[in-house]
Write a structure and sequence with these properties.
With 267 residues, the protein is α+β, with helices and mostly antiparallel strands. 25% of the residues lie in helices and 18% in strands. It is globular.
């Protein structure tokens, strides 16, 4: 048999053995899972190429040991990237991964330290260049951290005033999002995207349908995790409240969602 015939047979064999995906598209699934983001963010310009005294506008500044942060880059605020230590309280949404605080008010030029208390996270801006609705000021670049090892930290300087919605790439589908308000904003200065919440990925509805398609026995699936849309539209993350309180602990969100769920159930 010739080499050309061998190649033809191999191609036909590969075609026959390829298992087709279900009816949903592969690209939206990978996007929802954050797979592309996690792979690309971990391989870009990172700590190995960073200036020891500067915070890059797109890649920030990462350290494996927060005690090694240079004096001139000492943070003004800190956000913890955490994971739940136990099951949720009865009636509360299942929240495995979260930013704490989930809402933060800073001033222009402030440095925020994102501390990776648990592994496998990113701090990523909702930006059209990254693939989601643009939910940061127009002047803000498509910034993101790499995946920093547990115990490490990532710094970012927020120079442009406005409202920033951020997410964790690997845990986006589990509702790991947060909001930072930079500057003292009047309600008239709030961005228009706060009103276009339908563009925030629902994930819950999408994955209920996806999981059913993978199962031969289950006809319905209930998504038990808070969705990015539910977290970002919670009243706890109203920009005015964030400015008034300075920081909003994550605990405020599941408490609000649980209260809303209980009210819906009783009516």
């Amino acid at each position: 048999m010739s080499s050309e015939e061998d190649a033809t047979d191999t191609e036909e064999s590969n075609d026959e053995s390829t298992t087709p995906w279900p009816t949903f598209e592969r690209r939206p699934l990978l996007k929802a899972l954050g797979v592309g983001a996690a792979l690309s963010l971990g391989s870009g310009v990172g700590a190995g190429e960073q200036d020891e005294d500067e915070i890059h506008p797109m890649y920030g500044y990462s350290v494996q040991d927060p005690s090694e942060i240079p004096e001139r880059l000492q943070p003004d605020h800190e956000v913890d990237l955490a994971a739940a230590e136990g099951p949720p309280e009865p009636g509360e949404p299942v929240s495995f991964f979260f930013f704490d605080p989930v809402g933060l008010h800073v001033q222009s030029g402030d440095i925020v330290q994102f501390t990776f208390s648990t592994p496998d996270h990113t701090v990523t801006a909702y930006h059209e260049a990254i693939g989601f609705q643009h939910r940061v000021p127009d002047e803000a670049p498509p910034f993101s951290s790499p995946i920093v090892t547990a115990g490490g930290a990532w710094l970012y300087r927020f120079d442009t005033e406005g409202v920033y919605d951020l997410y964790c790439g690997p845990h986006h589908i589990l509702g790991m999002v947060m909001r930072i308000v930079v500057g003292d904003l009047d309600e008239s200065e709030y961005p228009a995207y706060l009103e276009t919440t339908e563009e925030i990925p629902p994930f819950g509805e999408e994955f209920e349908n996806i999981l059913v398609q993978f199962s031969d026995e289950t006809e319905t699936v209930e998504w038990v995790f808070p969705t990015p849309r539910e977290v970002l539209t919670a009243s706890a993350l109203d920009p005015g409240r964030i400015q008034t309180e300075g920081s909003v602990p994550y605990r405020a969100v599941p408490e609000e969602l649980a209260a809303g769920s209980a009210e819906t159930t009783t009516h």
